[in-house]
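Fold sample X.
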Amino acid sequence: MSEQRNVSKPVQLWNSAVKAVKGENTGALVEQFTAEMTLVAEGLCEDQARLRQAVEEVRREADAARQSLRSEQQAIDRTIQENQRDIDRRLDDIDRRLGALEARKAPSAKIKNKGLMGQAIILAGIICGTWLAVTILNLLR
């Protein structure tokens, strides 16, 4: 009897599998499969719609960020240009002032140089005269 049970279990399993494939429950199985696949397809469609909305939102945010960066870059460029013009104007003013100072300083420097040269010549003359006088006095002794 135990052999008959052991043999009958696989046979019953086989028969139920054949019935499921061939027969009695096929309509119900197809209906159940169709319902489950419809549910999966609806879920996928909803997921895809949410993903499209998320992608559009990310695109809008990226466009807004890009526009903001462009505006900031233009403002920075304008500021740099204004600062460069201000620096150029200040350098021109400093250059003009320096030229005026050099023009005023040049004649007085020449006069000072002439004065120093004259004083050096006089000092050299005094030294030479003193040497000459000392040499003559030494010869007279």
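Fold sample Y, listed below.
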Amino acid sequence: MFGRKKEALKEGEYIFASKPDGPYRNMIFGVATGVEGSKIGVSGTIVNPVGLKNKVSQGKAGPRSAEILAAPTPANCIFAFIYRTEHETFNEILDLDENKVILISSKMYSVLDGWIRESLSELLNNVLSLPDGQERDQAKRVLKQRMDTLYDKNLKQNLYSICRSLKILN
């Protein structure tokens, strides 16, 4: 679990997991609501990265994208959040013998949750999907305004980093 000795999960800890969805996996992040043996109750969000799945199926994405979809981690899943996502509340029990569950920090949880809660995927996708011109410039302004109003420092830094790497900040 990220360089730490395997230890028993406890109620109230933040976790990241994934669940099969066809040839790829959907991402789950949330809070452990109960632990009994190898079963863990999770209350959080499940994210289906439909935009990246479409890109891969159309052959418009490289092998790294397919790797992210096949084996998502807290570190690489943000790259799936750049494209359109679908999400819903997740309140289920995961079996630790069947699902890889990773302990994450509260900061990492707030970044992942912020991407979904603030609809950052939608804003980024708007910029990336438009051709150069007035509409794209307007989408960039909307994204920049949203970035400027974020309160979570870690989320803001993460978003700025992604935008710089995508070369969408002028």
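Sample Y note: The longest strand covers residues 24-36.
Also: Confidence is low (pLDDT under 50) at residues 1-6.
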